[in-house]
Write a structure and sequence with these properties.
Length: 507
């Protein structure tokens, strides 16, 4: 059986889940659900990144122990994903004991293989924050919290020999053995690796307690990236659960925004090369969301909470909107005005209204029963062609990770059904006592809705299930392999249908 292993980044617990994190997570969920629909063996991993000085500082401010603080925020992420219908198979936390043990195992391996050495890290250190700052993080050369100029300080640290991997990285990226998409992101990394020299990476701190201890020097904890990146392998059981790991590794698709591309295109593959582990097959880098042109974060107080938003626009409304409105690789500015427009037009009108009028007619004209398929006329054949064609097209488009084009294609199909109903006018046929043609038209309309439920399922799972319930069908969609269910005429005559709640009540 084909397998499909997909990941999101693990999110920092010093922020709260917002629409930016949801973007990657929903996108990954759509891919996971689509591949399950294809009958593949899917593993979908997400989680939280919980170590480091910043987290310890946030915990201190909140008057909590770091572990308690992490438990709480990590739970917020978990609950938000549950709320948004995210179907991850596992939720990894970097404070899991198994993960911590695996990170120490990695550090030992890197050390034994000669990829680690001890040196000094020199940087701008704020005593108040107990951390190093990048020059770009300072405001007027001062620490933004303590409003004092940080001191130039040296600290003993362990380094990972990242610089040794420069040419191998360039080679795997250029030869597409390690795929980075879209193309312009790949070019960006290639030109970075061609022009700039990679430095060895400081991977430990001696002043940060909230982290994984360096196993060969207990005074140090490891700093961010070795701990965070390894989640993608520890989350599927590396190194202990060999069967699980071998079943899913290498990752088929890793999603993230451009902010962490460089790390994932350099440190991540270099670590794997150093450990003699295969590289992931493909990274796909998406754009960044801003709100009114500004970056979104807890500290800026402009973070949009997807749960709050979903109270108005529904969960599937949010899932639909963020993948329909923006091209996945590009940046986008989030606007609730556009969300409302799309909700009313695409969801309430085009889809919701179609379902409710077809089902209302079935109740009225065919006694709530699916009729026989009947004789095919030209207009029926056209309808069938567009709907079945959509299945082929979305397969290609989802392989390109192009969600907005996929949804546009599905909406072309929905538009075709709407026009079909308008043109065939069942209400007029009902008056003319043309009962055979009426039955055929009703069959085709209901069968179109069945196929639309499959098309929209990865994006809007609960709407798809509700639609199927109204069509009198089983709702366990993932067992409906698209190859068999995605053909015409599978709707059984005499199935009892029942118009239910509006899929998307107008706002
Ligand atoms: N913990 C690291 C990642 C470690 S992965 C080994 C991290 N965490 S984060 O919480 O800052 O999340 C970054 C990721 O969240 C981005 O790459 C992206 O997937 C998602 N996004 C966060 N804010 C976003 C936007 N405003 N817009 C789009 N995606 C955003 O970096």
């Amino acid at each position: 059986m084909t397998k499909f292993y997909i990941t999101t980044p693990i999110y920092y617990v010093n922020d709260v889940p917002h629409i930016g994190h949801s973007y990657t997570t929903i996108a990954a969920d759509v891919m996971a659900r689509y591949h399950r629909l294809l009958g593949e063996d899917v593993f979908f991993l997400t989680g939280t990144d919980e170590h480091g000085a910043k987290v310890a500082e946030s915990a201190r401010k909140a008057g909590k122990s770091p572990q308690k603080f992490c438990d709480e925020v990590s739970n917020r992420f978990k609950n938000t994903w549950k709320h948004l219908d995210i179907s991850n198979n596992e939720f990894i936390r970097t404070t899991n004991k198994d993960h911590e043990k695996a990170v120490q195992y990695i550090l030992n391996q890197l050390n034994d293989k000669g990829f680690i050495y001890k040196g000094d890290y020199t940087g701008l250190y704020c005593v108040g924050c107990e951390r190093f700052y990048q020059r770009s993080e300072l405001v007027d050369n001062k620490c933004p919290l303590h409003l004092k100029e940080p001191e130039l300080l040296s600290e003993e640290t362990y380094f990972f020999k990242l610089s040794e991997f420069q040419s191998r990285l360039l080679d795997v990226i250029k030869s597409k053995r390690f795929i980075i998409e879209p193309e312009e992101r790949r070019n960006e990394i290639v030109s970075f690796l061609e022009k700039e020299k990679l430095f060895d990476l400081a991977i430990s701190r001696s002043k940060v307690e909230w982290g994984v201890q360096i196993p060969f020097d207990k005074k140090h904890t490891t700093y961010v990236w070795v701990d965070a990146l390894s989640n993608y392998i520890t989350g599927i059981g590396w190194p202990d659960k060999k069967d699980l790991f071998n079943r899913y590794w290498p990752a088929d698709l890793q999603l993230m925004a451009k902010d962490i591309l460089r790390v994932h295109a350099t440190i991540w593959p270099a670590l794997l090369m150093a450990l003699d582990i295969d590289l992931p097959k493909r990274l796909f880098i998406h754009g960044y969301f801003t709100v009114d042109g500004q970056k979104m974060s807890k500290s800026l107080k402009n973070a949009i909470d997807p749960e709050v938003l979903s109270e108005v626009y529904s969960i599937d409304g949010i899932r639909y909107f963020i993948l329909r409105e923006f091209s996945f690789g590009q940046d986008g500015d989030f606007s609730t005005t556009r969300l409302k427009e799309r909700y009313n037009k695409d969801l309430a009108n085009d889809l919701g209204n179609l379902a409710s009028r077809v089902l209302a007619m079935a109740e009225k004209y065919t006694s709530s029963m699916v009729p026989e398929m009947g004789q095919e006329e030209e207009i029926d054949a056209d309808l069938k062609k567009v709907i079945l064609g959509a299945f082929e097209q979305i397969d290609k488009l989802l392989n390109k990770v192009s969600f907005n084009e996929t949804l546009a294609t599905i909406w072309v199909a929905i538009g075709q059904v709407n026009r079909y109903v308008d043109k065939t006018a069942p209400w007029a046929l009902a008056k003319q006592s043309e009962s055979e043609r009426l039955k055929a038209v009703m069959y085709n309309s209901l069968e179109s809705l069945r196929l639309i439920s499959l098309l929209i399922y990865p994006f809007m799972p609960s709407t798809a299930k509700e639609l199927r319930k109204q069509l009198g069908l089983k709702t366990d969609i993932e067992k409906k392999l698209i190859q068999t269910a995605g053909s015409w005429g599978k709707l059984e005559p005499n199935t009892k249908v029942k118009k239910g709640r509006a899929l998307f009540p107008r706002l």
